[in-house]
Write a structure and sequence with these properties.
This protein has 425 residues and is an alpha/beta fold. The protein has helices spanning 3-6, 10-13, 42-52, 69-75, 88-97, 103-117, 136-139, 142-156, 161-178, 193-197, 203-225, 271-281, 287-291, 309-321, 323-344, 369-378, and strands spanning 59-62, 80-84, 234-237, 253-258, 347-358, 361-362, 365-366, 382-391, 400-401, 411-412, 416-424. A hairpin with a 2-residue loop joins strand 6 and strand 7 (365-366).
Length: 425
């Protein structure tokens, strides 16, 4: 049976699908809640579900859920959703984005917050340090620290944990955007002295704007959820599929919709750096400890040989340039392979997986992550259905960069994603 021609709708067979979504709003519903590095845009998950899961029910799973893009998209279509992520900030955001709040209770707390920030706080105790930030005055101006402390005091006294989480993620973005780090970067780079002179963030206004924005997104989310015949459930866990899999979910998952990391966090997306300041103010675990648990976080002593010849060839080319970098790359794919093996055990027979990946370059060599993912799943009795290509618009990186730091020596950056769809036999 040829799945590519017998099980897809006409729209899929036409092969004219647009996966770029260049002009579409990617911050609808609760997707507006919080920025985060390398987010999968909701339209990708939405189009996959429209093609392959229309009018179906069951469990949607994301093993590297980040801030919960695929989870929200699953919920609004009536799926029960499960997400795993190792980053505490990402889990907090994902859980909050998928929580059904009572609007009247939220509004009551927002009104109290407005009163709180307009109250005189003469006796406020300003912290000299925040655990996880070695130099508080380096990253925050004194007046910013004062106002962040006032907000944090209010949040600490919220007894309802779900309402508290709603305020915390607005506070998290406020912390980062009012800090002295350049906000157009995901890594931590402090503004120059000249730029800092003109940097005067209105912390209370910033926090209030985020609460208003998130409330609006929540209203739109609730308007869909409350019209479903069944109110679906959402669960977000701290679980590492590289190491194991939760047996209670074995062969219970109908759809996997996810975008795994494109490489180790040390040399690709700086999840830990991005989360560091927020995590400190929110009393979350130190992000650097999390980074070592992520794929490729610990470098292997030897270069692994994979069942994917194309991947082996690419790693071999890197090893000729730099053996240590080749070991780092190999470590990432070892972990990705282990994760795929464990994720596979959770999927039902005839269940579908959708992995959105990018093929990054290391030492000028393009790494075939799309071929590797396809191969890893095929080794677990999955059949390849289709790989879609998506051009990436509006990225926070130039079209070319200079990884060697040599003048005039540049290479293309990642400008395409691969949407790989497979079915379990």
């Amino acid at each position: 049976m040829n799945l590519a021609t017998t099980t897809q709708p006409k729209l899929f067979q036409s092969n004219k699908l647009n996966w770029t979504f260049r002009s579409e709003d990617t911050r609808q519903l609760t997707h507006c809640y919080h920025d985060y590095p390398a987010r999968m845009i909701p339209q990708v998950a939405r189009q996959f579900l429209k093609l392959f899961a229309e009018n179906k029910k069951g469990i949607l799973f994301d093993p590297y859920c980040g801030t919960g893009t695929s989870l929200v998209e699953g919920l609004i279509r009536g799926f029960d959703v499960i997400g795993f992520d190792l980053n505490p900030l990402a889990r907090l955001i994902a859980k909050t984005k998928t929580t059904i709040l009572e609007l009247s209770i939220l509004d009551s707390h927002i009104d109290k917050f407005k009163q709180h920030i307009n109250t005189n706080h003469q006796n406020l105790s300003i912290p000299e340090r925040v655990e996880g930030v070695s130099r508080l005055d380096f990253w925050f101006k004194l007046e910013v620290t004062e106002k962040l402390t006032i907000i944090k005091n209010f949040i600490d006294n919220i007894s309802d944990p779900e309402i508290k989480s709603f305020f915390l993620i607005a506070f998290s973005e406020t912390v980062r955007e009012s800090s002295n780090t350049r906000n157009h970067e995901f890594k931590l780079y402090r503004y120059s002295k000249d730029d800092l002179k003109n940097f005067q963030p209105d912390v209370f206004k910033m926090m209030s704007a985020k609460l208003f924005r998130n409330r609006k997104g929540l209203i739109n989310f609730l308007s869909i959820i409350k019209n479903l015949p069944y109110i679906p459930k959402a669960d977000v866990f701290d679980f590492n599929t590289v190491e194991d899999y939760p047996s209670e979910f074995s062969e219970k998952v109908d759809f996997v919709v996810t975008s795994p990391p494109y490489g180790d966090s040390h040399t690709t997306v700086a999840y830990g750096q991005y989360s560091r300041l927020s995590a400190a103010w929110l009393d979350l675990p130190e992000p650097a400890q999390t980074d070592r648990k992520l794929m490729g976080g610990i470098r292997s002593k030897e270069i692994e040989s994979f069942s994917c010849d194309e991947l082996n060839e690419a790693i071999s080319k890197i090893a000729k340039e730099n053996n240590q970098r080749a070991k780092e790359v190999s470590s990432f794919y070892e972990d990705l392979n282990d994760s795929v093996n464990n994720v596979s055990k959770l999927v039902k027979t005839n269940g579908l997986v959708c992995y959105v990946v990018g093929n990054r370059r290391v030492k000028g060599v393009c790494l075939p992550t799309d071929s590797a993912v396809k191969n890893f799943f095929e080794n677990n009795d999955f059949t390849h259905v289709k790989t879609f290509h998506r051009e990436i618009p509006n990225k926070r990186m130039p079209l070319r960069n200079s990884p060697s730091n040599k003048i005039g020596k540049t290479q293309k950056t990642m400008n395409r994603e691969y949407i790989i769809v497979l079915r379990k036999s």
